[in-house]
From TrEMBL:
The chain crosses the membrane at residues 58-78, 84-108. Keywords: Membrane, Transmembrane, Transmembrane helix. InterPro entries: SDH6. It comes from Cyanidioschyzon merolae (strain NIES-3377 / 10D). This is Transmembrane protein. The keyword Repressor does not apply. GO terms for cellular component: respiratory chain complex II (succinate dehydrogenase).
Length: 133
């Protein structure tokens, strides 16, 4: 099942992707308009990165709403201090997870054409190649 020389973790696609992501190394800040140029060459990957950003923003927004709602509910019904903080934290986590999942289903459907981590790796490699030239 696993190839010779692979570690246990290399059997999992995400860990291989993360190793590849780390292997890209440091990427300096890219110039203005670089993403537009990347989008012309790699439209599917650029679209995936845009959708990932939108899903992330939606997750943060729903998480903040969940934190405020949970904290306010806990405070109103007599839990203050640590109890309200824990309720707000749990509300943020739950709402952010649900919001991020809902946004990713909305933007991608159930099977994205391009994996977001693969798109990020491709973009960083593209920036690295263009910064050398």
């Amino acid at each position: 099942m696993s190839r010779e020389g692979d570690s246990f973790w290399d059997q999992f696609r995400t860990f291989r992707q993360l190793k590849e992501y780390a292997a890209v190394g440091e990427v300096k800040s890219w110039k203005r308009g670089a993403f537009r140029e990347f989008a012309r060459e790699h439209p599917a990957e650029a679209n995936c990165l845009r959708q990932s950003r939108r899903a992330g923003n939606f997750a943060i927004a729903t998480g903040l709403a969940g934190a405020v709602g949970s904290g306010a509910f806990a405070y109103k019904y007599g839990r203050s201090g640590l109890g309200a903080t824990l309720a707000a934290t749990a509300g943020f986590a739950a709402a952010a997870l649900m919001g991020g999942h809902a946004a990713s289903v909305y933007y991608w459907g159930f099977s994205p054409k391009v994996d977001p981590l693969d798109a990020s790796i491709l973009f960083l490699k593209w920036v690295k190649d263009h910064e050398q030239s």
